[in-house]
Amino acid sequence: LRAHAVDMNGNKVENPIDLYIYVIDMNDNRPEFINQVYNGSVDEGSKPGTYVMTVTANDADDGTTANGMVRYRIVTQTPQSPSQNMFTINSETGDIVTVAAGLDREKVQQYIVIVQATDMEGNLNYGLSNTATAIITVTDVNDNPPEFTTSTVRAAEQPQKGVGILVVISHDLTRGSRNWGGMGLPTTTCAHSHFSFSQPKGPGEKIQDFAAAVDYEMNRAFMLTVMVSNQAPLASGIQMSFQSTAGVTISVTDVNEAPYFPTNRKLIRLEEGVPTGTVLTTFSAVDPDRFMQQAVRYSKLSDPANWLNINATNGQITTAAVLDRESDYIKNNVYEATFLAADNGIPPASGTGTLQIYLIDINDNAPELLPKEAQICEKPNLNVINITAADADIDPNVGPFVFELPSVPSAVRKNWTITRLNGDYAQLSLRIMYLEAGVYDVPIIVTDSGNPPLYNTSVIKVKVCPCDENGDCTTIGAVAAAGLGTGAIIAILICIIILLTMVLLFVVWMKRREKERHTKQLLIDPEDDVRDNILKYDEEGGGEEDQDYDLSQLQQPETMDHVLNKTPGVRRVDERPIGAEPQYPIRPVIPHPGDIGDFINEGLRAADNDPTAPPYDSLLVFDYEGSGSTAGSVSSLNSSSSGDQDYDYLNDWGPRFKKLADMYGGGEED
C-alpha cells in the first residue's frame, strides 16, 4: 500500500511511503492424487527391492513450508499373503517396490494396496490426508512343469470317428498363459491308430479324439503312453524337467446304440394291383448292442397312401390296400414308405429305414376318347374331326389304338365313318352327302394294345352346322346346331325386350314416388311427431328445465292461406280448424278462494269443446312456474266455497307457492 500525509488544507507534509503486507500460508488444502486408481505389475518370484510403480499426489499449499510437503505410506494390503508387508513405498517419491520374497501367481494373482498421502511432512496429528488405490498384478513366468494327475479315463463308446472325449491327463500350475499350454504326444501305445490329440479345451485339460470308430463290442479298453511338455521353456533358475510322461488307460463304456437297417432305402419290384394281404418283403433292423438283451419293435413312420402294414415283431411288410401305379402318391413308378425300429433300452433308441417299391405297370386302364366335343359341316368333304385317345397306363399297354364305330344303332355307321391315320390318331367324317344341322352323340369304340387289350365306348358330341365357303360354321348355323329354331329365337328376344321394359317402368315409378314424397312432407318431422303416443299429464317434474320437446310445430301458423285454399271437408289433424272461437271465462281481478275450482273447470270445458284450440290432440303448454319446487303435487287440492278455511300453511310450501300464499293466506301482495 502507498500512504500519504497531508494537512487539513490538503498540503503534503511528508513524502509518501510504501507499506508491504505479506500473506502467510495456512494448511487449508489436502494432497490430491493424480489418479484415484493406479495399475502396476510385477513378475512372480521377484526379488525384494524390485520396482513396481509410482504414485503421485499434489498439494496446493506452499511447497517451501511444511504445509505443502507430502509424505506417502501404505495403509493396507489385500490379501496379506504370504506376508502382510509384501510391498513398501518411498515416503518422498511415492515409488512402490517389493520388500519380501514369495510372490507366486499360482497362489495370489493380484494385490490391492491402499496408499495414503499426508502433508505437514507426514504428521498425522496436524497434516491433511488423502488416499488412492494401487492394483498390483502378479505376472506369470514358466516356473512349473506339467504333471499328470490321472492315469485312468472312462469314455462312452462313439460310433463315429473324430468325436472327442474330454480327458484330464495333465496340469500345469502356470495356467492362463503360453507357459501353461502343454503339448501331448503318444509315445508308445497298442491302439494309437484309434486316437489323436487336439488343442486344450480348458485349464488342465486335453482333448483326446477318436481317430477311428470305437465300438464297445470290439474293444473295451485302450492303453496309451503319453508325453506332455511345455510350449515355452522353463524360467531361468528352475532346475526341473520341462516334460512329463505317463501311461493312460482309456476304458470304453457300453451305451445303448440305436438299431439300424443294414439295407437302408431298400428297393423291391412288383406288379401293381397285388391283392390286399400280400407279403412283400421283410424289412428288419439289427441291434448293435450284442451284450444287451433287448427287443426291437417296428412301426410305420411315413406311409402316404396307407397301403402297407408292418409286423411289429419281425418287420414283415404286407399290403393293406391295392397298390395302384397311376396314383398321385407314385413318383416315377416308385412308392416310398419309412419305418421305425426302436429298442427297449434305457434310454430307448430308434433308427429309421426307407422302403422303395417299384410298381410294374399292368393294363388296368381303358383308353379314353379325345376330344369330347367337336363340330362339322352338314355337307361332307369340307372338314373332318381328328380324334385320338388317352391312356393312364404306360407302354406297352397303350397305343397303337383301334378306333371303330359300333354296329348298334345302325344309324351311326350309316351317317358316319372313321379313317385311320396312324397308331394314335383317326378321322371322323360324314358318310352321307347331307346331315341336318343339330347336335349328335356319336359312340366310338377305342381299344388299346395291352395284354389282354382293354376297350372303352366313348361318346363324342358333334355339332353339325351349315358352313361358309371356308368351311366354318355360320352364326345362324351355330344357333341352329344348338337345337333352336327361328321361332324359339324370336320368342327369346321378345321375352328379353319385355323384361327390359318392365325394369324401366319400375325405375320410372320409383323416381316419381320419391318425388311425390318430397313434395308432400308433413309440417313436423316424423321423428318429432308425438301424435298417437302415450301422454302423461299429471307429472310436473322439474318444470321446463327437463323438457326437451320442440314445441314450435304445435303453435298456430302465422298465415291461414294454405288452409283456406284447401278443398272443403279435407283437413289435416295437425292444422288449426276454421270456425268461431269459443269464449273462455275471464279471471276476476280479485279472485275469491271459492271461485278457483269453478274457474278451472269452466276453462277445461271450454278447451275440450274448442276444435281450434291447440295442441290438437297433442301436448299442452302451460305457464312457466319457476325453476324447481321443494313442494309436492297440488293435484289433491279441492276447491271450497267456505270462507273460513286456513291457508297459512301455503307459506311452508316454498317459493313457488308464495304468490298463492299472499293471495289467500292473508299476506301482502308483492
From TrEMBL:
The chain crosses the membrane at residues 476-509. GO terms for cellular component: adherens junction; catenin complex. One of its GO terms (molecular function) is calcium ion binding. It comes from the Eukaryota. Keywords: Calcium, Cell adhesion, Cell membrane, Cleavage on pair of basic residues, Glycoprotein, Membrane, Metal-binding, Repeat, Transmembrane, Transmembrane helix. Residues 1-33, 34-148, 214-261, 262-369, 368-476 form the Cadherin domain. It is a single-pass type I membrane protein. It is found in: Cell membrane. Its main location: membrane. The keyword Ligase does not apply. Gene3D superfamilies: Cadherins (2.60.40.60), TCF3-CBD (Catenin binding domain) (4.10.900.10). The keyword RNA-binding does not apply. One of its GO terms (biological process) is cell morphogenesis. Cadherins are calcium-dependent cell adhesion proteins. This is Cadherin-4.
